[in-house]
């Protein structure tokens, strides 16, 4: 897979601290060499630590139907047990961090239960490898083990508003995570979940996901689903957007002759069967800080020197990107640039303008007129950063 050579535990730990993330899922914990790297870290109760950042073993696997599952594993010894179980059914477990395992979702859930790991569908709504691309319910995928499923990872393509009207998901905790192909803050932890716990480690994380003993998620933070390439139903050739009814009327064939790809938004609407959302933690839509700075100052790239200089000033002043995006009083940010403060406020207040993606083309975010500057390179799409 396309992953930066900088995805090394010391670098991840350093950048996670700058981002404001205290606990990181290791990813790839079935890979023998990566487990070896994790063993070099300091063991602290039921987690691993490098400097100020903690890690718990996690892995994403693909099943025989192409559906992706996320496993949170209590220890490296349990990861070793899973490796031995899955190795019999995988040709690439020693070469790919996200192995393909020729087992059903139910069989993978059984192995997770045996190893005392937590399991849930990864990026559940993505059109190619999400559980709802192939099934209409979790029970169709996980069979008799469906009650063991404890969470659903919403993924970059969905948020609480998409998932909560689906009764199939009512009892499950929603996790907002993002895979990381690079450790730098504009790519790392673009989505994260804030949880209420007593200390940092697997057991406390498990209690938060199961919502027991007073532990629970308290905030989901993620991208706008509209940024995704397949948010709305659209033609994969000409990118013309269609309503669900319009696409059905055309038998999913665009007027140009191209195929209309069903969007995540429409797929979630198909599955929705309850009108009143259940209680969930707040969901804050945002994007990486450097991208907000670029938008506010009118630059098309978050790598611009002026953008990076402003980012460094904010991180130096407030300790982490999460603090700036979520927690710091806005009047304290003005010392860098007033336009940046207005842009951060627009994201916090949900006042940005979304031009949804579809048909394989990313969506675009636009700041409201009061916050917008467009003189240094124009508006950018998610894929430009």
TrEMBL record:
Domain of life: Archaea
Cited Gene3D superfamilies: Metal-dependent hydrolases
Name of the protein in its database record: TIGR00375 family protein
Originating species: Candidatus Argoarchaeum ethanivorans
């Amino acid at each position: 897979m396309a992953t930066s050579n900088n995805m090394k535990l010391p670098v991840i730990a350093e950048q996670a601290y700058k981002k404001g993330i205290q606990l990181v899922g290791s990813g790839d914990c079935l890979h023998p060499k990566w487990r070896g790297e994790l063993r070099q870290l300091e063991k602290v109760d039921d987690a691993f630590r490098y400097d100020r950042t903690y890690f718990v073993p996690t892995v994403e696997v693909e099943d025989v139907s192409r559906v992706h599952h996320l496993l949170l594993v209590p220890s490296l010894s349990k990861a070793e047990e899973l490796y031995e179980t899955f190795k019999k059914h995988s040709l690439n477990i020693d070469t790919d961090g996200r192995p393909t395992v020729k087992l059903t979702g139910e069989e993978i859930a059984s192995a997770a239960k045996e190893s005392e790991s937590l399991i849930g569908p990864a990026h559940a709504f993505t059109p190619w490898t999400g559980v709802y691309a192939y099934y209409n319910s979790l029970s169709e995928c996980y069979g008799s083990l469906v009650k063991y499923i404890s969470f659903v990872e919403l993924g970059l393509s969905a948020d609480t508003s998409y998932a909560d009207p689906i009764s199939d998901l009512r009892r499950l905790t929603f996790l907002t995570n993002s895979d990381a192909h690079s450790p730098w803050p504009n790519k790392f932890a673009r989505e994260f979940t804030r949880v209420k716990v007593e200390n940092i480690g697997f057991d406390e994380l498990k209690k938060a996901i199961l919502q027991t003993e007073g532990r629970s998620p308290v905030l989901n933070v993620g991208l706008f689903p509209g940024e995704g390439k397949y948010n709305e139903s659209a033609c994969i050739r000409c990118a013309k957007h269609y309503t669900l009814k319009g696409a059905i009327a055309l038998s999913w064939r665009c007027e140009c002759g191209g195929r209309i790809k069903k969007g995540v938004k429409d797929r979630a609407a198909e599955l929705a069967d309850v009108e009143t959302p259940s209680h969930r933690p707040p969901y804050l839509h945002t994007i990486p800080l450097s991208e907000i700075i670029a938008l506010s100052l009118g630059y098309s790239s978050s790598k611009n020197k002026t953008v990076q200089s402003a980012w460094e000033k904010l991180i130096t002043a407030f300790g982490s990107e999460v603090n700036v995006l979520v927690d710091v009083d806005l009047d304290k940010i003005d010392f860098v640039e007033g336009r940046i403060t207005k842009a951060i406020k627009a994201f916090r207040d949900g006042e940005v303008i979304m031009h949804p993606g579809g048909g394989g083309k990313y969506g675009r975010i636009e700041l409201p007129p009061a916050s917008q500057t467009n003189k240094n390179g124009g508006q950018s799409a998610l894929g430009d950063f």
